[in-house]
Amino acid sequence: MRETASKAIRGEALRRIVVDCRAIEENLGTILRRLGRGTGLIWVVKSQAYGFGLDCIRNVSAPIAGYGVDDFSAAGEVLARDRSKPVYILYPIAPKFCPEELRARVWDGSIVPTVDGTGRIDEWLRAARNAGGEAFDLQVKVRSFGGRFGVPPEELRETIAYARRHGLGIRGIFSHPSHSTVSTADEIRRECEAFVRLARAADPEASIHFADSACALKGVGVDLDLVRVGMLPLGLLPEDVGWASSLKLAITVYARVIDARTLQRGEGIGYALPEGNTPNVAIAAMGYAHGIPRMIAQSGHAWWRGHKLRYASPPWMEFSALALPQRDLSILEEEVEILGPHAPPHAFAWQAGLAPEEFVVRLSPVIPRHFA
Predict the structure, then answer these.
(1) How far is CA 75 from CA 14, 111, 124, 183, 335, in A?
(2) Fewer C-beta within 10 Å: the chain N or C terminus?
(3) Average pLDDT over every residue of 149-178
(4) DSSP string spanning 142-202?
(5) What is the maximum span of the chain, computed from C-alpha positions, in angstroms?
(6) Distance CA 344, CA 247 (A)
(7) Which residues have C-beta within 8 Å of that of residue 38, sequence separation ≥ 6?
(8) 269 and 197 part of one domain
(9) Looking at the structure, do residues 89 and 161 belong to the same domain, yes or no?
(10) For residue 115, what are the contacts with CB-CB under 8 A and spacing of at least 6?
(11) Given this model, what pLDDT does residue 274 score?
(12) Looking at 72-86, 104-118, 195-209, 349-363, which range is the least confident one?
């Protein structure tokens, strides 16, 4: 007969996310100290701050130059939380995708759109004229040397001149490495130097930026006018190396154990038989419906009372089965750390075929977030 134990959960949350805003502040301070004199930092908070939740903005105080996002709706959400800094759209998106209620924020410079050529400039000029204005600021994105979208390098000078002729302000010229996470520091540095020569020749006065988080880790582009970092302030690392090892992971994902049992031989759990000799399991209330990828079972672990708990099988929709070294019913109703300082994504992401940020950007927005 199967040995099992369960209790009624007494009103506590089955799962929750704690965001450590003080750790984010400290991480931003660490990054800022590594930048060149006068170099500003754009904090990239796209995808709801990589799944941490945009409300972390309200609770973090740091001398940043602005925020970076992926679309205009996200820019509006950022401005609802902090109107003191500009929000940069990091992709060349047409004005028809900017909600009407946010276009005034473009004209007053609170939101800075990005263009990828004279055609996109014309679209924005028509939108401005329809709103009764003409002058506004923009950024120009240069297609990286690996082929990502943006204005072709050979068309940059004319694009800048076209914008200037129409009285538009250039808030920045930017690009990024073609393969930032796999290129060597020397390869990225050569790309950065080529971009700087191109941008300075097109407009000696405009602010330029090239560095993303991967560049910053390698010390490339950190002395230009601006850098853009999104994962590093959150402590999401491609790997735990060098100076970045001092950055703190600023998120902990908890799930409560709702059942603990001893399996009989041949008894399955979730969608599969348990892997290895796993008679004792704890069932945590966190599954792929909440954003935890099934591949986490390949190399990941949870954490409880000083112990790593490997996954007994891939998570199913609502739950995950964790292998217990021995039958221990004291885990019942306790919280286990699914992701956090003791189970950091970079420790097992690549082995599972995923980037570390993929473990957090998918976290369900309905999971309660607490900003400490």
Answers:
(1) 32, 7, 17, 31, 35
(2) N
(3) 94
(4) BPPTT--SSB-GGGHHHHHHHHHHTT-EEEEEE---TTTTTS-HHHHHHHHHHHHHHHHHH
(5) 82
(6) 12
(7) 225
(8) no
(9) yes
(10) 92, 121, 124, 138, 139, 140, 141, 151, 159, 163
(11) 64
(12) 349-363
Count of the separate structural domains present in the chain: 2
Residue 101: which domain range? 21-239
Structure tokens at 223: 């002395």
115: domain CATH number is 3.20.20.10
CATH assignment of the domain containing 365 = 2.40.37.10
Measured at the CA of 284, the angle between CA 279 and CA 285, to 5 degrees, comes to 145
In sequence order, which residues have a C-beta less than 8 Å from that of residue 305 and are 6 or more positions away?
A: none
Instruction: Please check whether residues 213 and 74 belong to one and the same domain.
Output: yes
Over the stretch 60-73, which tens digit does the pLDDT of each residue have?
999 999 999 999 99
Q: Identify whether 244 is part of a domain.
A: no
- Amino acid type, 9: I
Structure tokens at 272: 């599969």
Last residue of a domain, one of 177, 212, 239: 239
Give per-residue pLDDT as tens, 17-41: 999 999 999 999 999 999 999 999 9
Q: Are residues 210 and 276 in the same domain?
A: no
Residue 371 token pair: 């900003």
The CB-side HSE value for 64 (13 A sphere, CA atoms) comes to 32
Q: How many other C-beta atoms lie within 10 A of the C-beta of residue 199?
A: 27
List of residues 6+ apart from 187 with CB closer than 8 A: 177, 179
Q: What is the pTM of this model?
A: 0.90
